[in-house]
Amino acid sequence: MKKYKVKVNGKVYEVELEAVEETKGSIETPVATQQSNTNNQSGNETVVLAPIGGKVLDIKVNVGQKVNKGDVICIIEAMKLENEVNASASGVVKEIKVSKGAQVANKDPLIIIG
Predict the structure, then answer these.
(1) For position 34, what pLDDT does the model report?
(2) Rg (the chain; Cα; Å)
(3) Measured between alpha carbons, how far is 64 from 110 in angstroms, rounded to an integer?
């Protein structure tokens, strides 16, 4: 058994792993697909989509508030982990499509930034 420390969203977790069989492999992550999952741009507005299904724990912005790309705009809990959702564009919050405590599915619209 090997022990590792893993940092997820700023929290450190300790995990133990047992090697069963070692094989060479690679993980491919298409960048364009990931970006399209987090926002949908139409005209001068960006719709921030839920990156994962879960419960909305907190909304960190208000309508009319200026946000910068990368700012945390809401937090979604999924499988007992808190996932920060970041603004995918800079601008002003035009509309908030969800409320605190709401259940969201993957790719549901959360916030519109214009």
Answers:
(1) 39
(2) 17
(3) 15
CA 21 from centre of chain: 32
Any idea which fold 38-114 has? OB fold (Dihydrolipoamide Acetyltransferase, E2P) (2.40.50)
Q: What are the boundaries of each domain within the chain? A: 38-114
Each residue's pLDDT tens digit, 84-104: 999 999 999 999 999 999 999
- DSSP assignment string, the chain: -EEEEEEETTEEEEEEE-------------HHHHHHHHEEEETTEEEEEPSS-EEEEEE---TT-EE-TT-EEEEEEETTEEEEEE-SS-EEEEEE---TT-EE-TT-EEEEE-
Q: Quick one: CA dihedral 10, 11, 16, 17, positive or negative?
A: negative
Tell me whether residue 71 is exposed, middle or buried, using C-beta atoms within 10 angstroms of its C-beta: 0 to 12, 13 to 18, 19 or more. middle
pLDDT single digits (tens) 29-47: 554 433 444 456 556 889 9
pTM, 2 dp:
0.62
